[in-house]
Structure formats: C-alpha cells, structure tokens
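User: Hi! I'm a student and our assignment asks us to look at how structure tokens line up with a sequence. Could you show me two examples?

Assistant: Happy to help. In each example below, the sequence comes first and the structure tokens follow. Example one:
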Amino acid sequence: MPTAREALLDAAASTLAVLPWSEVRMGRIAAAAGFSRQTLYNEFGGKDGLGRALIGRAVDRYLAGVDEAVGAHAGTGRGPVELALWTVRAARADVLVRALLTGFWDARLPRPGPPGPRGDGAPEDAGGPPGHRPGASCQAAPAPAVLLALARDRAVAVLRGRGPSPDDTGLESRCEIALRIGLSYAVAPAVTAPSPVGSDAVRLVHEALAPGPKR
C-alpha cells in the first residue's frame, strides 16, 4: 500500500497530465489522494515543495530505470543499447523526465528551483495553512548535462559489476554515445513510418558502436 506521500505524488502527477501546473490546486490533489489538505501541506510545505518533489521523483525513477534496464542485459553486451532505449521511452512517457533531460520547461510544468533559505528545498513562505509544518522536499533538480552524467556513471557501474573491465574509458564512451543518441530520438523522433518506441535509436546505437574494420 503506498504511503501518504506516494499517494499524493501519484495524484499530483495524474492531475498534471490533464491540467497545467498553474491550474493545479492543492485541495483537488488532496481529495483525489484521499487525504486532507493539512496532510498535503505537512508532507510538502506548499505547492512549490510539491512540484519539486514531483521533479525529484522523476529523477529518481529515471535513474532507477537506468539500473534496471542496463542490469537486465549486463551479460549480453546490450547494456548501452538498453540505456538508449530506456532514455527514449522514459522521456516520451514522462514530461518531467523529458524536461529534465532537455532543460526545456514549458508553462504547463512545475519549475525546478534551488533550495530555500531554510536549506530543506522549500521556500521561506511555503503558502500553507496556519500551523502547517514544512515537509521534506527534494533539492534543486540536476541540469541536463549533470543528469546525463549521472545516468552514464550508473550504467558504467552496473556494467563493471560483471567484473573488471579492460577498457573503462571505452565503456564510459559507449554509454555516453548511447545516451546522446537516445536523447536525440526522444527530442526529435525519426520521420519514418510508425515503429516501436526507441527502435530507431537502437539501430543507430548498434551502428555507432559496431567495431570498425581491423587494420
């Protein structure tokens, strides 16, 4: 059974799928999750804190997906390919992941921000009802380059878990190439007949990482 925090985040994500963030109301989210507004404010401190928590969860889920996608194929040599495929699918399925990877935050989305003066990620005036206490919230969202580096490093760590790699630099480069290709297809899909999500990225990663002719 999900915790109150997870249920509230799920309700906020569902609401964000149909309404721009500017029209999202705390009372609606609390009611949809089956909790009081006070509980919502206790957990997140206010709407800004809720937005940052949504963004933080998107970061965590994307990186957890990297671990899972690469780890499931660590022994097959398909780790970088699966990294690209997961990046395409995650960015297309979640507008927050797409914004995190591209740095483009349109008006429909909550905006990431630095931690507030208290240092807990919430603004000084969280906008809650009298007597509310600010809840835990995430730190500032990573910039796209930082998030890509985190994903690359996690993929490399998973792949190294199979045993010592003779070419760590090469492994990092292969994962970096796969990520960049995946991101490019997430932002600008190929202009071709409909195909499974990410299939074009998989093909290009295979071609890019294929061994060159021996000299």
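Example two works the same way, sequence first and then tokens:
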Amino acid sequence: MRLSRTPLLLALASPLWLAACSPSAPPPADTAAADPAQGPATAIPEGRPTPGETVPSSGLSPDAVTAGSPAPDAAAPAPAPASAGTPAPTTDPATAAAPANGDVRQRIDQVLGDAAQYEAVFNAFQKAVNGGDRAAVVEEVRFPLNIANGAKITGPGEFQRNYERILTPAVRKAIAAQKFDDVMVNQQGVMIGDGQVWLNGTCLDQACSRTEVKVVTIQ
C-alpha cells in the first residue's frame, strides 16, 4: 500500500509553525519591584541622584567632595578695615583744661592774652567777695552781667538790689576755694569753681591792642 507524503509533511511542520507564531514570554519582572514585602518601587526622575550618591556642593566639582564629608561652610566675611584718613581724636584747645600749676599764666597768654590782668581781676574780685565789700565787687563786674537761668543784670543798682540772690552761699564758697593756679582756661575765658563765675576781656580799641578784663558771669 503506498502512502501520500503531503499529510506527513504537514504533520511534521505544524509544531514548528505553532512555535513561531506563539507570543514571546515577557521578561521576568524586577525582583525588588515584584517583591510584595518591599512595596511598590519608587520611580526616580531622570537627573536626580539615587540614594547613596554623594551630592556635590554648589560651586564645587564632584571630585572636590568626598563621600560622607560635609559641605564646607561659607567663609566668614573679613572685618571691614578702618576708614583711611580718619584722624585720631584730639583735644580741642578751646575746652582743654589748664596745664600743670605754674603754667596757667602761659595758657592764658596763649588763649586770651594778658595773663597779668586776669590774675589782678581774679584777686580783687575774690578779696571783695570774701570781705563782703559790695562796692568793690561791682567794680570788677561788666554789665550787662550774665546770671543763672539765662537772665541778665543791666547795671550796678540792679546788682546791689539782687546781691544775695546772685552771690549765693554756694557761689561765694566756690569763689573762696578757688586758687588762681588751678583755674580752667578756654576761649570763653577763665572759669572759677565749676562755672559759677567767668572772667573775660573786651577790646578797648579796633586793633584790640588794649583790653579790659571783668567778671562777665555769676551763676
């Protein structure tokens, strides 16, 4: 009995044809992503570092930072230098105290002029106040006279009427205790006590070649 070849060939080719036409098996899923104990995998956007990577500090190359080392702190700003050309504080000659004892006369000559006349008025005024000689006190005063609280005494008569109010016990005490060698001198004049009395000169001619020293303030 003779068999046909066609059915035999079809039977041999069928398994091969089925294998070629069957879909490919999907690749095995990532073990970490498929493991239900680990939970769903977290997608990391492109460009962001993955956990465990070292992030370089801003402005530094990645090679400059070692793994686990902290980013360097910003450098503290240097203290501003002192302004150039600023002069050192100096003593104003207008408010400087008198030099050591014995030099006050030189100081008066330098700042005010005619130290001998200042000393003579100082001594005469102190003697008149200490002795209670009101007429002699008036002789050493220039009017209008500056008194406390910005007020002024215009003339000898007003001065005599207000003598006790002007020359109070505290003022008289300061005058009696003052030594000429210890007076304070500045461009306002010669000061007695803590400013209770001031002496100053005024020019008697246009060239100021002659001056007259008087008491100008009692307060």
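Here is something you could point out in your write-up. Strands lie at 141-146, 152-153, 184-186, 189-192, 197-203, 211-218.
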